Amino acid sequence: MIYCLNGKILKKSLDQVVISCAGVGYQVQVPSSVAGALPAVGQEATLYTCMNVTESDVSLFGFADEEQQACFKMLTAVSGVGPKVGLAILSVLTPQRIALAASAGDHKAFTAASGVGPKLAQRITLELKDKVGKGLAEGLTLADLGPAAPAAGSNLAQAAAALTSLGYSSGEAAAALTRLDDALPVEELIKLALRGMARR
Asked: With contact defined as beta carbons under 8 Å apart, do 71 and 89 qualify?
């Protein structure tokens, strides 16, 4: 398993990047949102990767950060969602937006991605909602959140559920949200928590 690649960008297009690491050029498929944010050809970059191995192909998929990487794994675990559809979803939605859409049951958000019809969007929402709900049920305890444990339906609880669905432990999610104000919108809480965790 190749966890990440750090090296010089040799080529870049809307959906692919070739990155040179220790003399080897790796061809990596990326969401269009990642390709646009990467430095110019000749500059150094880091991509967090997922490897997909089939009988006829070995492919690498690259992401700007660990949140996108975890989100891609979560999406492709849904039946009917292959790597191409996973990339298409991450091209139009951020991990925070995906977690919010899943927890809110907003399947229409996923139809903005190429290759995602209404039926597949509903399946994605249903399967991811279970994961978000499981994180909410199992991930929040008084010990994790200290004296001010949020009510199950509060914004902090929803943000914690979204973070655990992205692959963070309940302890990490709780620690990141401890000092944040429950009055903030859920999406803002998730952004602030991810920013705080990235600085550690």
From this structure: no
